[in-house]
Design a protein that fits this description.
single chain; about 300 residues; alpha/beta; three-stranded antiparallel sheet; globular
Length: about 300
Amino acid sequence: MSAARNIQPATASERRAISRPANDPYAEVVVGGIKTACVSREQMAIVMVEDCFAARRRTQAPKLIFASNGHAIAKAATDETFRRQFDAADLVHADGQPVVVGARLLTRTPIPERSATTDFVHDAAKAAVAHGLKIFLLGATEEVNAACADILRFRYPGLQIVGRRNGYFGRDDEEAVCDAINRSGADIVFVGLSVPLEYDFCVRNKQRLRAGWLVTCGGCYNFVTGDYRRAPDWMQKFSLEWLYRLAREPRRLFWRYAITNPLALALIFTRSRSLNSDAAAAAAPPADWQAQASDAPIASLGTRTAH
């Protein structure tokens, strides 16, 4: 696979710096039993940049960034180990549209929009170019991993992918994998090892790693390469992306969706709630924060030294 696909380079406006200071807190709500951040994709990228700069100033473990969707909600309710892994996350974002809908209908603090990892990887790449952050890609087959790196570099000129590794390694190899990540000086590590392996890897190795963000991303690399296709926008909007995927892969996905979808829907309706309303109100960004952003650039805080 090569990057010589029909892919247009990002425009200058797409690569411009994200400029709103990210030290404002964000609200959280419980959707389907999982505490989820009320952030837009742009806000999430801003928080990422600030956290990565903070990690450069201090030697610390990375923040764990996990994704909530119907599958995760159902699994967290039925698998105690998986539930504990989610409890260890520093930020859980709304990867699935039903999570967004549930927050809007059943809590006082709506989630602004879906932040699917397949979209956020592009937001992260733009922010990384704008602020000199470094990325490591972990997971998938060697062919898909290499192609994903090539395509992202082509799409976002100047993007620093300082390391990558396929996802075919055993637990005995994890120390060496973590050492390679640390030597690369990566600020953001995307981990695409499938569910639940990627969550297990992140929680187990958090203290070994030195980065800003450790982001689970499932089959994200396959979407970047075009091996997997996204559902049409209208299906995504109406929470029907699962149906599109089921039509494409019925054998693999039928029983998964037949079991998890009804359970996830029931959990969203019965285990969703607002958290402290005063805290949520204080955490909500000002209505004009986007207008304020242009005059407040985030300064580069230097380069990371490899550990």
